[in-house]
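Hey, resending since the last one bounced:
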Amino acid sequence: MNSWQKLLIAAVFAEILTLGGAGMLFLAGVDLGSPFILAFILIVGAAPLGVVGFTASKRDDFERRDDLKKFFGYMNLHANFRPKQSDAALALEDLAHIAHRLPGAPSGVTLLAHPEGQPESPSLIEHVYSMTRGSSSHKAIHSIAIMSCPNSWPRMTLTSARLADKMGEHPGMQDVQAGDERFRRRWRVRSSDPSFVEQALSEDLQSYLRPAPQDEMWEIGEGRICCIRRAPITPESAGEFAARPGRFLRHVPAELKEWKPLFNDPVFSAAA
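The structure tokens again:
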């Protein structure tokens, strides 16, 4: 039985008890027309109905959470829904290079899923924040799949070539015209070391990245590969999404696993 079903049954049961209690008071001769008694019955009776309405409106959220818990259990990932700010801050400590994409973090973190004792396995983070433009506002959601990569790799971002992305324009980074024409039509690549990008973007990696969703972006640096999407993590997408950083890493030429920069990365130096 799903969480939302349990909550719904509890609310209905409470409503039945409330109505039953009112009936017993009536049979006992209590004046239900008394303002105090009537107000008490209305308040107590309305509460379960409110829970029923809330539960019905959040049914999809409850079902998504239950299905994700099953998936994370199968993947040996420890899931934390609505984590404490201290836990979220700890999870974000090694992700300073993507902090600009997570306004309001760590309070906006709604999901953490990390491997138990398996540092080479991917982690997942979901972050939500509200954006206001004029008189309207909406929620922006970012899902992040994270995996370790060599600490020596320079900063590199891949964003949609069709969409403006001011957040990816960091000092010390430049546009790199790497890959074939089809790849360049799909991706805008920026890096602090163009020579690394030219070597990393093998034909295998280009083929893997070409069909990616338009809302997908990549942030590589500080020993982390981060695949980011502007969408929530769902039971249907979680497996494929969690695997993307590892597949990215496997498509990078093996010799770059031992890559060493010829100079200090200006982006990291400036941040320090």
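The chain is about 40% helix and 20% strand.

Sorry for the duplicate.
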